[in-house]
């Protein structure tokens, strides 16, 4: 563990997200958002060297380009995968996604489509995008930068990503590869109990169980919550000097 007292909440979130990639092996990492992107790159440079990174366009990278840039700005290209091949990779389970979520319910149903009645929404979001295919075909984690009762709701307005209750109730074989992993937020790391309901795995340093409960719109089990680990000295060095020297992570997570 790092003994650096200046570790930020964003850096704790980065390593918590990085730990979600442990054991992934040689699969395509699909990371949506700044913190997930840094986390996948950190995992590859430390404990998960076979993880396959993309530059966000079509190139697969052994060394990533600068944040927010594609292969033309740097990094080391080792292969390429045009858009049509991504669907083949996804359908064969050789992918691991860490997506965002505008709403999540107790069973991990995710909404990124719209808020309010779907026939006349109060807010239009980005649409379901790839969430159905991701949750049907391979492991999917979620990253939430602002843990609040507006995000963690009793029932999502639109199901974009399939939750555990719906997957278990489905009678066919289409959801046999359904695999929800963790939900990392700016307050905690959540995973699922035997009934498929969200629970608190760990609280970030300085966060209380009461704080998480008050910011969650349904009852959530905090009884066995550990403390989220701090980054190691090596991880801090990589985050601060190699992966995100401009400190962009602190724009996504409050200090």
TrEMBL record:
<dbReference type="InterPro" id="IPR037171">
    <property type="entry name" value="NagB/RpiA_transferase-like"/>
</dbReference>
<comment type="similarity">
    <text>Belongs to the 3-oxoacid CoA-transferase subunit B family.</text>
</comment>
<dbReference type="GO" id="GO:0008410">
    <property type="term" value="F:CoA-transferase activity"/>
</dbReference>
<dbReference type="InterPro" id="IPR004165">
    <property type="entry name" value="CoA_trans_fam_I"/>
</dbReference>
<dbReference type="Pfam" id="PF01144">
    <property type="entry name" value="CoA_trans"/>
</dbReference>
<protein>
    <submittedName>
        <fullName>Acyl CoA:acetate/3-ketoacid CoA transferase beta subunit</fullName>
    </submittedName>
</protein>
<keyword id="KW-0808">Transferase</keyword>
């Amino acid at each position: 563990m790092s003994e650096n007292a200046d570790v930020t909440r964003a850096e704790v979130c980065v390593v918590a997200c990085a730990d979600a990639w442990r054991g992934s092996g040689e699969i395509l990492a699909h990371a949506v958002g700044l913190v997930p992107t840094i986390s996948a790159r950190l995992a590859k440079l430390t404990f998960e060297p076979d993880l396959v990174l993309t530059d966000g366009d079509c190139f697969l990278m052994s060394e990533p380009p600068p944040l927010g840039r594609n292969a033309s700005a740097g990094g080391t290209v080792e292969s390429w995968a045009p858009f049509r091949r991504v669907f083949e990779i996804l359908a064969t389970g050789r992918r691991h996604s860490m997506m965002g979520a505008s709403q999540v319910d107790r069973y991990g149903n995710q909404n990124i489509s719209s808020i309010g009645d779907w026939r006349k929404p109060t807010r239009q979001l980005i649409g379901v995008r790839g969430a159905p295919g991701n949750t049907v075909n391979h492991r999917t984690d979620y990253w939430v930068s602002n843990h609040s009762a507006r995000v963690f709701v009793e029932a999502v307005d639109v199901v974009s990503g399939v939750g555990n209750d719906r997957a278990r109730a489905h009678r066919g074989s289409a959801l046999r590869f359904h695999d929800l992993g963790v939900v990392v937020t700016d307050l905690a790391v959540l995973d699922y109990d035997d009934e498929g309901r969200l629970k608190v795995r760990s609280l970030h340093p300085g966060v209380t169980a009461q704080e998480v409960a008050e910011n969650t719109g349904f009852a959530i089990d905090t009884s066995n919550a550990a403390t989220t680990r701090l980054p190691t000295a090596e991880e801090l060095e990589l985050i601060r000097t190699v992966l995100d020297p401009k400190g962009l992570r602190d724009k996504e997570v409050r200090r």
